[in-house]
Amino acid sequence: MDVGGLIKVALTWPPSPEELEILQGILGDRVKLVYPKSRKNRFLELIELAEDADVIIGGYVPDSVILKAKKLKLIQTLSAGVDRFNFRLLKEKNIRLATASGANAITVAEMVFALMLAIAKKIVEFDRLMKKGKWAPYNPETASLELYGKTIGIIGLGNIGREVASRARAFGMKVMAIKRSVEPDLKEKLGLEFLGGPSDLDYVLKNSDFIVLTVPLTPETKGMIGERELEKVKPGAIIINVSRGPVIDEKALYKALKRGRLRGAGLDVWWAYPPDPKAPSPRKIHLLENVVATPHKAGWTLEARARALRLAAENVVNFIEGREVKNLVNLDLGY
After folding, report:
1. Counting C-beta atoms within 10 Å of the first and last residue's C-beta, which end of the chain has fewer, N or C?
2. What is the CATH number of the domain that holds 136?
3. Residues 6 or more apart in contact with residue 81 via CB below 8 angstroms
4. CA-to-CA distance for 282 and 257, rounded, in angstroms?
5. Are residues 146 and 287 in the same domain?
6. 329 inside domain
7. How many structural domains comprise the chain?
8. Which pLDDT score is estimated for 281?
9. Which one-letter DSSP state was computed for residue 193?
10. What pLDDT, in 10s, does the model give residues 78-124?
11. Which pTM was predicted?
């Protein structure tokens, strides 16, 4: 059913002229766009701006904003992860939540391989030596690792996982994957060596040289890689996490890295974030020599941002015109 009338859409951030051009070009004149004037006080401003808004577009929306929003019907995020949202409150207020899932899949998949190669090829280690004027000798300890012929285990085969699988095949890797619900013919379509469900996690861990985590953070996935699972991992494997920090048990990962059970880890997501003084890792995992650390930027490129804005605007048009809203979150499942 067509919503009708002028729709008020509140943005959670002060957009750049380029971002406004993308949004206005798709939303047209049926929408009144409002947004905070500064990033510093944006949530305080947003409480007032969203009070009579029909839609909010942007990032995380705190409870203080949602509680004051009297007409809010849809929150359209610019990201795939929504674990910070209060699903119970959204259900109580009958507010739908949609993501920009897929918009940054290419970007994140490229970061996965950047982290894999940085560790496998010892890029960070060699760079540090060269800056000190030192040349690594030729011996087994300085030899790097080929990706060709190795097995990659992808835990979570959504948009990002599928992009990772595609690039892994280009590197000549064997691809195994775990998916919550296995779709018919998906194994053949993606050229996978193995595709299993959650009960097959141990098998994939035991047989993978590289393990890539791309699952959403839910009660079921929190801590899914713990001490027991890391004991199952092939010795010398490399683990890459671009999902959410708490998917891996921090203490167990620290232990596996210190013991040398894992060759290394590439981490873009963390257990603590600023302004928490313990950020990014209370156990200081980011300081370990066999860890390559990045500040949750795997999905951040201008290209991905533009795709997310276009996807979000198109989805709001779907909402306005009574068509299917894509990427709706199941508030009971959390993704």
Report:
1. N
2. 3.40.50.720
3. 99, 216, 217, 244
4. 15
5. yes
6. no
7. 2
8. 98
9. S
10. 999 999 999 999 999 999 999 999 999 999 999 999 999 999 999 99
11. 0.93
